[in-house]
Amino acid sequence: MRPMRFMRELPKVELHAHLNGSVSFQTIEKLIRRKPQLNIEHSMTAIGKGQRRTLDECFQVFKVIHQLVDSEEDIFMVATDVIKEFAADGVKYLELRSTPREETTTGLTKRRYIETVIKAIQQCKRERVDIDVRFLVAIDRRNGSQVAMETVQLAEEFLLSSDGLVIGIDLSGDPTVGHGRDLLSALQKAKDSGLKLSLHLSEVPSQHDETDLLLNIPPDRIGHGTFLHPEMGGSQGLVDKVVQNNIPLELCLTSNVKGQTVQCYAEHHFKYWYQMGHPVVICTDDKGVFATDLSQEYKMAATTFGLSHEAVWKLSQQAIDYIFAPDSVKEQLKQKWRDLQPQEFK
Ligand code: 5GP
């Protein structure tokens, strides 16, 4: 079977997808039509093939998208579109993450923001879209300790009231701003109340102390972890902590290459962790902004690192073990993978 067709038909798990970074060209088109007065063009919301940006420029892109997505109506449309696009790409289980925002001009509150994402998930369920979607409430590190604590409190409420849809916390936002020590107590509180934690760690160099501190919690998964290992300026001590706690890494190849934290695909830290046999999950990060999808990310990993179709199948299947939903969901997904497994891999 041709590689791209194999990757598209492969059942997949997506564990690292920021809602507003995942907005497709088509949805941006609809948003631009809704808000022509903003004079926003497509070139301002996505980084095309062969293009690269500094990480700082990437964060400017998110600000533009946030201007376009500032009401309950927008969030509902964006979330339903994103969920359906992931489903169309063969994603069977998706953990979406997003930072609740309030917008005085549209009356949006953080609580309504989360409720609207939940409504979108429920709507897709009603329409029988073939995908199980969960939600991680994101903390933007830029906003400091008090906002982090308030976000955790909101997430705790939804953990109890959303019928299993809100299951965790994401720590993200510009990694060059703020320090993890200020967020430690909020993250610890989240963990103690049963929320799962996915933390962006060592996404840029020189975060050794912060990473070391946050690994003590420990998080349930790590986003990126680009500069954890010694070859990238991290340390064996950090690697040991990750390995001893068996913390899976969410790896986003195109995002890291286009955002220039990784020089080229061949130098991506996927290789380091995969060769070690440590749990890794291929993810998109921001499929809209980086103009990719999960099938393309799997294909890129396969061609760059010489993975057979069978190895790719295993990689997607193993991702089930690292989801935040309970064991009963893992069992359902494993059954789905068994049903879809090509004869030659059985
Ligand atoms: P949202 O939370 O608004 O749905 O998605 C966009 C936000 O996700 C950005 O403003 C940023 O806080 C976070 N984000 C998206 N991609 C990345 C990334 O690659 N690294 C980090 N640290 N944060 C990101």
Description:
The chain has 346 residues and is α/β, with parallel strands linked by helices. The protein has one domain: Alpha-Beta Barrel (TIM Barrel). 46% of the residues lie in helices and 14% in strands. An 8-stranded parallel sheet has the order 1-2-3-4-5-6-7-8. Helix 1 crosses helix 12, helix 4 packs across helix 5 and helix 8 runs parallel beside helix 9. The two termini are 17 Å apart. The structure holds guanosine-5'-monophosphate. Guanosine-5'-monophosphate binds next to strand 3.
Label this structure with key terms.
346 residues, alpha/beta, TIM Barrel, 8-stranded parallel β-sheet, 8 strands, globular, binds guanosine-5'-monophosphate
Helix content: 40-55%
CATH architecture: Alpha-Beta Barrel
- Which class best fits the helix and strand makeup? alpha/beta
> Number of helical runs?
14
Termini separation (Å)? 17 Å
- Specify the biggest β-sheet: 8 strands, parallel
The averaged pLDDT comes out at 96
CATH level-1 class? Alpha Beta
Number of strands: 8
Question: What would you give as the CATH superfamily?
Answer: Metal-dependent hydrolases
